[in-house]
Amino acid sequence: MTGTTLALLGLAFSLDLLVGEPPNAAHPVAWFGRLVDALDRRWLETDRGQRLVGVAIAAFAPLVPAVAAGGAVVLVGGVSTLAAAVVAGLVLFLSISLRSLLELTKTVIEATEDDLETAREQIRGLVGRETATLSPGELRSAAIESAAENLADGLVATLVPFALVAPISLPAAAAVAAWVKGVNTLDSMLGYPDKPIGTASARLDDLVMWLPARLTAGTIAIAAGDPAALGRARRWARDPPSPNSGWPMATLACVLERRLTKPGVYDLNPDAALPTLADGERAITLVGFAAVVAVIVAVVVAAVTTAVGIALEPGVVP
């Protein structure tokens, strides 16, 4: 199964780079977003009641895309094993997002040179903070922070679990990737302090993203040829409110030797200067290289899973 898994990793990654994300009307993640939007309402009068409803939403809503993805692979597998593998690869493709992230980050970074209005408008697709008063350096910082954080959410978090499970079961691998994407989507839509209904979703996302965020920090450090950056990043990685996002952001701040900041919330590598236009361009390149490192990690994970599976087969001598 290793060869099949590698082919599917290559298919998903290549489709993302060549095609990018489908339009919302044809994107299953957007369909799931509409479901989440319908669930985001006042079900009960008290905040405690809303939090309890939120627990049910966090527990069951991500199962919808997971069952749909896994079921699709099983259904198609009854007709053709090859077609089932392709469907699993398409599920992975739909659960990752690298090209659109890098393109939007590049648009914002370039606009900070001479078109701050465009930069402030476009960056709304990356961050939720107020941007009207941000300087060019702070706008570049926000874009770079988002690129680092979303490398974890938009690639590593689904790619590695898929690679881990695919050599064992393609339907399960598709289901896992879709489930993780569902958890991420729930958090992005509901996981705000002023939304009691999203508290459980935010906590679940914190748990799911614990390892991917730290793994992403490692890929950034390796891509930069600076493994020691992880040790330096530890000093600021816990400063952002999220227990996870600080790791890739602080690591990128360290390898760039630049300050990344959300005014009034956190300062990463605070003694350095804010990023220049050239720093922003370098950050985009580093995130792209880190994505390649993540794919290599996924390949290794798939190979290890296969080797362990073979070793555990009855009658096989390790």
TrEMBL record:
The keyword Transmembrane applies. Pfam families: CobD_Cbib (PF03186). Its main location: membrane. The chain crosses the membrane at residues 52-75, 82-102, 286-312. It is found in: Cell membrane. GO terms for molecular function: ABC-type vitamin B12 transporter activity; threonine-phosphate decarboxylase activity. Keywords: Cell membrane, Cobalamin biosynthesis, Coiled coil, Membrane, Transmembrane, Transmembrane helix. GO terms for cellular component: plasma membrane. Belongs to the CobD/CbiB family. NCBIfam families: cobal_cbiB. This is Probable cobalamin biosynthesis protein CobD. It comes from Salinadaptatus halalkaliphilus.
